[in-house]
Design a protein that fits this description.
Shape: flat
Oligomer: single chain
Number of helices: 6
Number of domains: 2
Strand content: 15-25%
Largest sheet: 5 strands, antiparallel
Length: about 190
């Protein structure tokens, strides 16, 4: 009895650690193979096809008379497209693509599940804005600072210089002019 419960809990822990990623990857591959099978059987709507042109520089190329069936996929702006056909015309390759909605739904479900399992929604609401000292320590103790880090350094130093600007201005106003030139020192 205790061994069975331990095995079940260990299985749940392993699933939580990364098993769900394997499960979603399996669903993605199964969806892709089913979608490619539909494309091979020509059971898709021609009006959903999107044309993508890619410039090609090949010597002695000849134009193709018609489109050829072609397998592959591309991600553009987070949308997964599967290649359906391709054709070489003049200096560009034309791909006719169709969006793979099933794969996008599975990926979105995997991302939502990942966020829920790791409590990403709740942890973002609890954080407060870091202090300027925390920002500076993050910038100076990381190996590769980003552009935003340099901008935050600049704002911290600008705010600091504004706070002490009146002190420096009063020091500069007290300077007086020298009444004459310093004496000339001749070396013999």
């Amino acid at each position: 009895m205790k061994k069975g419960i331990a095995i079940i809990l260990l299985g749940l822990q392993l699933f939580n650690m990364g098993g769900y990623q394997l499960l979603f990857k399996h669903f993605e591959e199964k969806s892709s193979s089913h979608f490619i099978e539909k494309l091979n059987n020509h059971s898709y709507n021609e009006s959903e096809l999107i044309e993508i042109k890619v410039p090609i520089s090949l010597p002695y190329q000849s134009n193709w008379d018609s489109y050829q069936r072609y397998d592959g996929e591309v991600v553009i702006s987070g949308v997964h497209y599967n290649y359906v056909k391709r054709k070489l015309v003049n200096d560009s390759m034309s791909f006719l693509c169709i969006p793979n909605k099933d794969k996008m739904n599975i990926i979105d479900a995997g991302n939502v599940f990942y966020a829920l399992v790791n409590d990403l929604q709740g942890s973002q609401e609890k954080h407060e804005a870091p202090s300027p000292l925390a920002k500076l320590s993050k910038i100076f103790f990381t190996e590769y600072p980003s552009v935003q880090d340099f901008q935050s350094i600049q704002t911290v130093f600008n705010n600091t210089s504004l706070a002490y600007q009146h002190h420096t201005a009063s020091i500069l106003q007290r300077s007086e002019e020298v009444p004459e030139r310093p004496p000339y020192l001749a070396f013999a």
